[in-house]
Amino acid sequence: MSSFAEAWIEHDYNPFIVFDNTGKIISLNQEAQYLLGEVNHKKIFDIAQTYASMTYGFKTTIVDISFSSYKFYAITVGYDDETSIGIKLYKSATKKFANVEEYGESVNIYALLDLCISASSTNANIKFKKEFDPTFPDVRLKVEDFMKLLTKVYQSHINSPVITTRLALITGEYIRFNTKKYPIFSISIKGENRDRNYEKSIEEIGIKSNCTIHFEQDETLIHAALVS
User: Fold this and answer.
1) Is 96 contained in some domain?
2) Which parts of the chain are beta strand (E)?
3) What is the domain range of residue 73?
4) Which of 44, 45, 193, 212 has the fewest C-beta atoms lying within 10 Å of its C-beta?
């Protein structure tokens, strides 16, 4: 393979992994490294085996696959002998931010989350867990709308015995606005027994807060631009 082709794969937006026949990784691109930060590589190997062609060659399958913040709409699996197998996963297009509005209060995101968790825990027999990236700067947000959004999300999980809140930067993803590039951060609020009746109101408040919202079975994901 030429160095140009190798560089192209390395910088592909979609994860690409080659395994040996035991499931050990032989090679992978940059995007696959990010993916494997959220999912065990054995799960990807199992998917490659499941969707591989019955004979040597390549097979593309349209299939919905999700791993935490990653969503895929198709995969290609290929092999030409019994020693190795490759898989490429095609990322679904994420909902786009309408804009980035550079105004609002500069707030400590940890304090904001702690405040909403404290309010939500009042008179509720729930164990709240926090998994926070400790390196976040202060963030400019529409504080009132953002607090309404967090409160509504916690309300939707209020019947869960445990609610886990995770704050993290989405590695390698940015939004461009007026020639500037902004990182994207994610707040995951996860707890079983999520009430889906809240989804419409959460999405409406999300629009006012300039956030995108993703719903999983037991998880609500909030994505926003990190404007500091």
Assistant:
1) no
2) 16-20, 25-28, 57-67, 70-79, 84-91, 105-107, 127-132, 139-141, 162-177, 180-190, 212-215, 219-225
3) 3-91
4) 193
